Amino acid sequence: MIQSHLKTLIFILLPPVLLALGMGAAIQGSWLPELPQGLVEALPWLMGGLAGVLAFLYGRTRTLICVALVLLVYLGIMLHIRPMAMAPGTDPLPELGYALMTMLIPVVFMANAFWSERYHLVMDLLLRLAAFGGLAGIAVFLAMNDPENMADLLLTIYVPALHWDAYGMPQLSFWSLVLCLGIMGFFLLRRPSPQWAGQWITLAGIGWMLPQLFHTYAVPVFTATLLLILAIAVIHESFQMAFRDDLTGLPGRRALNERLQRLGRRYTIAMTDVDHFKKFNDTHGHDLGDQVLRVVAAQLRKVSGGGRAYRYGGEEFTIIFPGKTVEQCIPHLEDVREAIEAYEIAVRDESSRPGSKREGRARRGQGKGKKVSVTISMGVAERSQDHPDPETVIKAADQALYAAKQAGRNQVCAAE
Ligand SMILES: Nc1nc2c(ncn2[C@@H]2O[C@H](COP(=O)(O)OP(=O)(O)OP(=O)(O)O)[C@@H](O)[C@H]2O)c(=O)[nH]1
């Protein structure tokens, strides 16, 4: 389980992290070719347009807000902070503007990331714009009204030992960035998803980019890279939604069909079905039925011997073993069948549900609740002269599954 979680995390995080690190290194090392300044400054808008259109088409309001935030940061730096900071006889305003921006960005990023997409797209977007615009408006109003006190609050170095002067960010902003990245990173590690990864890397990237204010390439080129990462995250998320079964997290029927087209000359397919599942649903309810399907899927995912599990549909699953014979697969299938038979699921008694989360935590593990378990039956067949393609192998495995049910269930049956 931990291994597959780690694999998912690497699969989701590695490409955007490498892209951001690669571009960061290219900027730092001045490896990028000289490009016309106009083109460099247009890049963020081109990438922002791409990411924004994709996020809009796929209804990803969170990503749409991220895109807007990144472009706002870009505008803020190019139009306000950089020109004013470069002007001689600087007044304290650009410093305050910078402190305000670096303080607000992580907070808004985090609030946006935890605010799940619920309402109609336009409504959702308007609510977010109202909340974040209102927050920024109040902060700017306070800063304009009383710049001295605000500067005092945002620019003071509260704990000198915890201040990293070379980084060039006010202490409060720096630690708010670290805290927000830490909290978002924790959730990303627990539930990795391309959208979360995109948001996290974008915030980390802004954190890296902001102090590089005067590097000619850093701001526009890195902004464009972050927007490209957001665009890729939208595509990756949609790809996952199409190929992954939402309830169990296993690859779904579409992924199975793709895999079946790319099998070699030798393979074995097992069809799996939960026993008496209709009765289970009728007795314990659909919600517990769903929980059972998740447990069964989690066990099937762990199948050894190079097998890979898919949700075929309903309470049926398929396991594919490339390059293996039925004889080689049976011990691995028996292991999974036994693990599912032994797995006990606690049934929550609705009438005695804990009144609070704390009470629930205290009661956990006391073993008072009723426990249920299920069994599965499996039919398995390999490619042979009689079953020369995946369709006929699946049909043979299905017949073997029927035989397993007829023989009393909770067993693995091989096709003749
Ligand atoms: N909770 C839940 N139930 C599902 C889901 N998909 C299918 N089912 C239920 O699975 C049951 C399948 O039952 P049947 O195909 O009749 O077979 P069975 O009761 O498992 O009996 P045998 O296969 O003969 O052991 C139906 O009651 C479906 O409603 C799902 O996603 N969640």
Describe the overall structure:
- There is one protein chain.
- The protein has 416 residues and is an alpha+beta fold.
- The chain folds into 2 domains: 2-243; 253-351 and 367-414, 2-Layer Sandwich (Alpha-Beta Plaits).
- Helix content is 64%, strand content 9%.
- It has 15 helices and 7 strands.
- It has helices at residues 2-28, 37-57, 61-86, 93-114, 121-145, 147-155, 171-190, 194-209, 218-243, 253-261, 277-284, 286-301, 326-342, 357-363, 390-406; strands at residues 267-274, 308-313, 316-322, 345-347, 370-372, 376-382, 412-414.
- The strands form 2 sheets. Strands 2-3-1-6-7 form a 5-stranded mixed β-sheet, sandwiched between helices. It has a two-stranded antiparallel ribbon with strand order 4-5.
- Helix 3 packs parallel to helix 8 (194-209).
- The chain starts with a helix and ends with a strand.
- The model has no long low-confidence stretch (mean pLDDT 89).
- Residues 247, 273-279, 281, 286, 289-290, 293, 314-315, 405, 409 line the site of guanosine-5'-triphosphate.
Q: Could you list some keywords that capture this structure?
A:
15 helices, Alpha-Beta Plaits, five-stranded mixed beta sheet, 416 residues, binds guanosine-5'-triphosphate, 64% helix, single chain
Care to give the gist of this entry?
The protein has 416 residues and is of the alpha+beta class. It contains 15 helices and seven strands. The two termini are 34 Å apart.
